[in-house]
Design a protein that fits this description.
CATH class of the largest domain: Mainly Alpha
Strand order of the largest sheet: 1-2-3-5-4
Distance between the termini: 21 Å
Largest sheet: 5 strands, antiparallel
Number of strands: 11
Bound molecules: adenosine-5'-triphosphate, magnesium ion
Order of helices and strands: EEEHHHEEEEHEEEEHH
Number of helices: 6
Number of domains: 2
Strand content: 15-25%
Radius of gyration: 19 Å
């Protein structure tokens, strides 16, 4: 287990919201400055999932969300992952009210658990600080002037593009060795900061062995992100990388 990072304020006395980082269809990320007893402070990314039952823009705004749209779930991601009891799995697949209740409770917990496991395994992932029902707190990647850019919009020269790809491969090896597939890997869910690639956005991560579609998700992740590098002019082979990853499982 890696030790808790020393920049982290573990006993906060004050949280100040500095602003909204992004506001999307599934979650809003707020930047929070957290101060401790000794006056030390750190930056926290607070990811708030849009509530599932509320689809109305006015209601969401009343809850403090800037923008609203319908929250969509893809139950395929959850199959074989968390709901090992067939009764629970059926409820989720059919989206009964009991099924929705199960999802609500486990959504942030799942992202937190996967990120914690991968952080411990040494992945370049924001340190997962904690979670509650619909809020996940993470290390903020960036500084007071702004968040790290997503890979898709990071200004990368050729050497940095090559470095980013190397870090992608190293990161994928860590993720797959730990038995996971990200499930939504793209140049949107990778950040670039100080010459370092960061993996984010894990709520749909699947256990490769337990999920019948685990390898399909992994294949899609790898080919998607390799196509992005390919379009940027790097000679990369997604199928070869996929095969390499099968070898570390
Ligand atoms: N720890 C972080 N530090 C800095 N920026 C972050 C962090 N986490 C997320 N972001 C920013 O917020 C964006 C959305 O976060 P994330 O990908 O986790 O949520 P999402 O489910 O894709 O949200 P949506 O679908 O609503 O866009 C990221 O693409 C990134 O720009
Ligand atoms: Mg995302």
């Amino acid at each position: 287990m890696r030790p808790v990072p020393d920049w982290l304020v573990v006993e906060p006395v004050d949280d100040i919201e500095l602003g909204v980082v992004t506001s999307g269809k599934e979650a809003q990320i707020d930047l929070v400055e957290r101060t401790g007893h000794d006056g030390r402070s750190c930056l926290v990314a607070r990811k708030r999932y849009l509530p599932r039952e509320v689809h109305n823009k006015g209601e969401l705004e009343a809850l403090g969300f800037q923008r609203a749209s319908t929250f969509r779930h893809d139950v395929r991601y959850r199959e074989g992952r968390q709901f090992r009891k067939s009764r629970d799995r059926r409820a989720v697949e059919r989206m009964t009210s009991y099924g929705k209740h199960l999802l609500q409770d486990r959504w942030t917990g799942h992202e937190y658990d996967v990120m914690s496991t991968l952080w411990d395994a040494g992945l370049s992932v924001p340190y997962p600080i904690g979670y509650s029902t619909d809020v996940l707190e993470l290390e903020f990647i960036g500084d007071r002037d702004g968040a790290a850019p997503q890979l898709r919009s990071a200004p990368l020269g050729r050497p940095q593009l090559e470095a980013a790809f190397e870090q992608l491969v190293d990161g994928l090896i860590v993720i797959v060795s730990a038995g996971w597939s990200h499930g939504d890997l793209s140049a949107y869910n990778l950040l670039w900061w100080d010459d370092r690639l960061w993996f984010i956005d894990f709520p749909q991560a699947v256990d490769i062995a337990a999920n019948p579609m685990g390898l399909d998700f992994l294949h899609r992740d790898v080919t998607n992100v390799c196509e992005w590098f390919d379009r940027r002019g790097l000679d990369v082979d997604g199928e070869a990388l996929f095969a390499q990853l099968l070898g570390v499982m």
